[in-house]
Amino acid sequence: MEYLAICDECYITEQERLLNEIGEFTIETEGKTFKLTQDMVSVKRFQKILHVEEIVPNVIEPSFGIGRIMYSIFEHTFHVREGDEQRTYFSFPATVAPYKCSVLPLSQNHEFVPFVRELSEALTRNGVSHKVDDSSGSIGRRYARTDEIGVAFGITIDFDTVNKTPHTATLRDRDCMRQIRAEVSDLPSIVRDLANGVTTWAEVENKYPIFEGQETGRKEMTEE
Predict the structure, then answer these.
(1) What's residue 41's pLDDT?
(2) pTM of the predicted model, to two decimals?
(3) Rounded Cα–Cα distance for residues 168 and 106 (Å)
(4) Is-contact 198 213, C-beta < 8 A?
(5) Residue 20 is inside which H or E element, if any?
(6) What is the helix (H) or strand (E) element at residue 35, kind and residue range?
(7) What percentage of residues in the chain have a pLDDT greater than 90?
(8) What is the phi/psi pair of residue 107, to 5°?
């Protein structure tokens, strides 16, 4: 009887049909076969009022909408700079960051324009989404703006880029804020490999010199 009590309605209905037609049906349980006849079992249907019914669900249907995924990403990547509560940033992995890189000319001087154009075109060819910020704000303020929207890396075109050959520029990592210096022609492929997870920032720092400061400035460029 315990076996029949746990059977579903479809099975019971089928056994009821056999019971009415041939007067018996068989069941198999625990490796044994049992024959049940009309004088042993019958099927009755009735209504029962349940004031409390406890149900243990056996199916869990998780829901993962895009809103929940985005909230989780924002929640786990939002940070505040140590020692400066006003400076916040999103540490999006470069592979999912909307913008992989920013291009930041240090000056609005017309001699910087060719380098901005060259880098922007090369980044596009390499499939690197980027943002050019040539506004008049200080470089620190512009770094902070790009950090706030989670841009992973930043290329800065400074006076050494214009004044010295071979032409080089700096590449900044958003999370550690350290910078390296490399030739302008190499930077798009470096950023591409970083964004695609082919290389790491630690490997880049081991390969290229750490940037510590400009060697030339606005005055030297003007005199030339």
Answers:
(1) 80
(2) 0.68
(3) 13
(4) no
(5) helix 9-22
(6) strand 32-37
(7) 58
(8) -140, 155
